[in-house]
Amino acid sequence: MKIDLHTHSNSSDGTDSPGELVNKALAHGIDVIALTDHDTIAGWDGAISHLRSGISLVLGSEISCQTIDGISVHMLGLLFDEADENLQQLMAQTRENRVGRMERIISRMNEAGIEISMAEVLAQLSQGATLGRPHLADALIAKKVVKSREEAFEELLHNNSKYYIPHMSPTPEQVIKQIKAAGGVAVIAHPLASLRGRTVSLESFASMAAAGLDGVEVSHRDHTPEQRELLQSVISEFGLIATGSSDYHGNGKLNQLAEFTTEPVAFEALEAKANARRVVKA
Q: How far apart (Å, rounded) are the C-alpha atoms in residues 152 and 134?
């Protein structure tokens, strides 16, 4: 059984529509796919409308967080109630914060002689999509500054770049509590992915676990075998659930659907922690 609990569509910074994502997942023999666009649920209806026999859909979002010492964290909220107004308001605020952040990144690039405008970046977004650095990468590709998203992030847009600007976001603990209050489950995404910049300390898992953290994305392209082993020790210490996911974005990133997956027993344990059965089937 193939279970991939972290993917993106063009409702945020992926390149496939939600429907295309579901179709590709079905073609890859995936049994359970999660749609987790950044700070939005805009793609949910499109994904649901393309469901067919043979695949189930976990609806969620990858919510932007920031620790009190400024480290960026992404929290997967899965199986929550879409009608929860407090969680929707939190995601709306993080989306708004992304716009100001992008303007500041562009300003830094302009000062360094890289000619790119906010209008050119916004032209890369699908209708209603959540703004992110991959859209800036696409604008840079269109201007022939770089050749691919991978090159853009390696050379210009990584977290240690001089152009990098963190965006104001709630703390991981605040987001976990909001996800739980909305009846969902909270899984921290790629917590030790050092290629993305500074990572959370192992000690910080204590406060996240106390806030209600349910799981840790252990198996991920950006985690080394040693990092996965470290995360397994965290899981054992705090009684958390280990997941594996592709973090698929479509074209321009190496991540492939189901290159890492979640064990069925782990998914069953996660689903049991939601306050209602919300996996969608055709």
A: 9
Q: Which of 33, 103, 93, 102 is nearest to 65 (CA)?
A: 93
Instruction: Give the residue from 227, 206, 205 showing the smallest Cα distance to 218.
Output: 227
Among 3, 5, 41, 2, smallest CA distance to 248 is for: 5
Helix, strand, coil share (%) of the chain residues, nearest 5: 40, 15, 45
Q: Residue 272 CA to chain centroid, in angstroms?
A: 22
What tens digit of pLDDT does each residue of 98-117 get?
999 999 999 999 999 999 99
What are the C-alpha distances in Å from 181 to residues 37, 99, 172? Answer: 20, 27, 14
Task: List the one residue out of 172, 239, 240, 166 whose CA is nearest residue 211.
Answer: 172
The 3-state secondary structure of 163-194 reads CCCCCCCCCHHHHHHHHHHCCCEEEEECCCCH
Q: Which two tokens stand for residue 229?
A: 């082993």
Separation of alpha carbons 110 and 136, rounded Å: 13
- At 74, phi and psi to the nearest 5? -115, 130
Q: What domains does the chain contain, in order, with CATH numbers?
A: 3-92+167-281 (3.20.20.140), 98-157 (1.10.150.650)
Q: What is the pLDDT of residues 230-270, one digit of tens each?
A: 999 999 999 999 999 999 999 878 899 999 999 999 999 99
CB 190 within 8 A of CB 159: no
Pairing relationship of beta strands 241-244 and 280-281 according to DSSP bridges: unpaired
pLDDT at 45: 98
Taking CA atoms, 141 is separated from 3, 46, 150, in Å, by 33, 28, 11
Residue with tokens 């920031």: 66
Enter the pTM of the model.
0.90
Contact of 91 with 63, CB cutoff 8 Å: yes
The neighbouring-strand residues paired with 12 are: none
